[in-house]
Amino acid sequence: MKTTRIKINNHLDNLQQDLMKQLYTMEEKENSIICQLLSSIEKNEKDIAECQRNITNIKQHATDLQDNICDTSDVKNTVTCRNLQGAIQSTFQNESILKNPRGIDVDSDGNVYVVGKISNNVVVISPDGKRYREVLTARDCLSNPTSLHYSGPKNQLLVTNLYNKAHLFNLI
């Protein structure tokens, strides 16, 4: 009986050791899977952060105009306004007046203010995109302007230059 008990205990000990080995192996395998998932999550977080930066960049170059969204293309030298369904309402392109359009803003009448980085100017474009007027130039201390903000109540434009100071202009 004693020998049988010893055999049974040894067998149970061996079973326990085998089960513990299997548990450790499974734990290592699951830890590996968890590490892979965490790595994937970190990559997704980086992708999300990049998307957020891209959205912020798009917002810098696009503005909401009542039921339209206007944006600039510095590659095509265009200013395009679309309705909320995405249909183009107007497109302005005149490289002799506006090169490398960047910052954009809109007044309460729907006029679109745009800086031309290479043309060193600010152009105001009518809501239909058919008329324009150059309101500021390099003579007004613009040097590679990149962004602007129109303040309607004060009728002022704040224009930032790439390498030097920003300027506040009173519009007449």
TrEMBL record:
Keywords: Coiled coil. The keyword Coiled coil applies. Residues 12-68 form a coiled coil. The keyword Coiled coil applies. SUPFAM superfamilies: NHL repeat. This is TRIM71.
